[in-house]
Model the fold of this input.
Amino acid sequence: MTVEPPYRRIVADIRRQIAEGRLAPGDRVPSTRQIARQWGVALATATRALTTLRQEGVVSALPRVGTVVAPHAGEDSPPGPAAARGSGGDGAEGAHQGHENALIEAGPAHDRTLREAGPEHDRNRTLRAARPGHDRIPRGGRSSPAPGQAGHREPELTRERVVRAAIEIADAEGLDALSMRGVAARLGVATMSIYRHVPGKDELTLLMADAAFGEHSYPPERPAGWRARLEESGRALWGLHRRHPWLAQLSPLTRPLPLPNLLTHGEHMLGALEEHGLTASTMLDLQVLLYGYVQGLAVHLEREAHALAATGLSEDEWMDLHGPAMGSIAAGGGHPAFARLMAAFAEGGYDLDLDAIFELGLRMLLDGLAVFLGRAPGADAGTRDAEAAGSNAPDARASR
Done:
């Protein structure tokens, strides 16, 4: 008697839920971690089950949303999972793509791009709404023979394909879900064949990061002025972190990664500063400050994705659940400023928009830098070089 592989039982179960209408087109299906817990299988088995469903055209993987039920034959593509459909943002896909293009191709006039959606538009959820990915349906479309069927021809396995598959997993599930077995399952190959192209997960992660940072290239003609160039760098990095939130989890600022494509962004920032008579240490401090600002804010993109996967609650649903407790704190009398804010937002609520906060912070950082650069050449008082020359200013690093 032949025993059905565990992943096939999972595939059959999810297919049955779709057939019975418990999962409709556009609804999220369980993530790899949820499948592993629910069915008691390894992550690689869960990954193989989702990969099989994708290859069969039953589900589609949407970056930063997860895996959703694909439209039935003859239907239009779904607008995204239930949470995205309820966001009130019509044309979410176009809004997301337009936002992403604006971030990556941004010029000095970008300041208002993020606010072009209407006042009733929930930007946070729209930016995470469905966007067609190149992994949605395998090459050849829904009618292509599945692996193992006659006429099916697998593309040649290359390092580039391995890295791209790993990026797709990290985009959809986060770095914690990444494994060599999972990548192999996604590509439909034996795990050992992955090791012929990449020595291990650590090396794979570095290759992924370098490929992700390399998705943006700066035009040969640089914008005029240091501010416009730093805005260009900041927005490019923010756009890449928005597309790949796991980038913010890779390494602390104190341990920079030796990645050529990451250095390209650093080169662009340093080039904007090198004509101002700054010391080498000050230039690096300013570069680290700007990159650290992007990374620090982008950390919350991945944390939100983890929270959504762990709780199943959207941001709005979480606030609905915890709002009464916030109101009780405000009514307690010990936090009067907070209470006044709560009262001010009682009608319309507060939209915590990370894109708007990014723009606000970038503007304030560059306003401060403008004041700093307006000093006389060589007036770097307070920097570590001035301190080494005899300044009495305290060195925060000495207290570590």
User: Anything to note?
Assistant: The first strand starts at residue 59 and ends at 62. The beta strands are 59-62, 66-69. DSSP finds 17 helices and two strands in the chain. The chain has a mean pLDDT of 74.
